[in-house]
Amino acid sequence: MPASKPKIAIVCYSKSGHSRHIAEQLSEVLDADIYALTTARYMIPFFGYLRAGFDSVRRAPTPLTHPLPDIEGYDAAVLCGPVWTSYPAVPLISYMRQANYLPQVIGLLLTSGGHSPPQKAYAMAEQVLGRAFAVQEAIPNSIEDTPDMDDKIARFASDLIAATIKG
Ligand SMILES: Cc1cc2nc3c(=O)[nH]c(=O)nc-3n(C[C@H](O)[C@H](O)[C@H](O)COP(=O)(O)O)c2cc1C
To answer: What is the 3-state secondary structure of 23-59?
Structure first.
């Protein structure tokens, strides 16, 4: 159990800004640091979208910009990013596979268009991580900036803090 306030990192990939916005809301509640995952691969107009979907379906690794966020020394981390083709976006998967260090307590916070249930994405992320997430949540774009979003973020934050204190 951390002696003082837990140090929390949010590692976020966002192609079109929704996940970044959610990460910022969560960081205010948790007083957490945000680290952006980036890749040029999906930035090309229109073709970037196709590539994202294609890479997601064939589960290809993303060439992430290096150095990757170094979150050693944090008590807990949140991985935040979109659902692509029912899975966590490829950059999140690639980060989990490549990161040198991930804390014991990790939360998964996904954003989505709301047209696929998040269970498939949770299961795949858990399989890649090799253990259960302390807390997982999905926020559809349709509830962005509504009281429902605030509720989900507040619950996510308090569950993550509880898991961190429990160790
Ligand atoms: C290639 C691609 C595939 C997507 N697949 C899904 C999907 O299977 N289910 C869903 O609900 N939303 C899907 N979406 C919508 C995104 O998950 C949603 O818009 C998300 O909030 C985008 O986050 P971002 O703005 O941080 O990139 C997809 C978006 C893209 C670009």
So the answer is: HHHHHHHHCCEEEECCCCCCCCCCHHHHHHHHHHHCC
Smallest CA separation from ligand 1 atom 30, residue: 84
CA of 52 to the centre of ligand 1 (A): 10
Pocket test for ligand 1, best of 112, 139, 145 (most atoms within 8 A of CB): 112
Structural domain includes residue 15: yes
Nearest ligand 1 atom to the CA of 18 is 25
Domain interval for residue 28: 8-166
Examine residue 35 and state whether it is found in any structural domain, yes or no: yes
Determine the distance separating the centroid of ligand 1 and the alpha carbon of 83, expressed in angstroms.
5
Q: What is the pLDDT of residues 6-62, one digit of tens each?
A: 999 999 999 999 999 999 999 999 999 999 999 999 999 999 999 999 999 999 999
CATH for 95: 3.40.50.360
Say how many CA atoms lie within 13 Å of 109 toward its Cβ. 33
Residue 1 lies in a domain: no
Q: What is the total count of domains within the chain?
A: 1
Per-residue pLDDT of 147-166, as tens digits, reads: 999 999 999 999 999 999 99
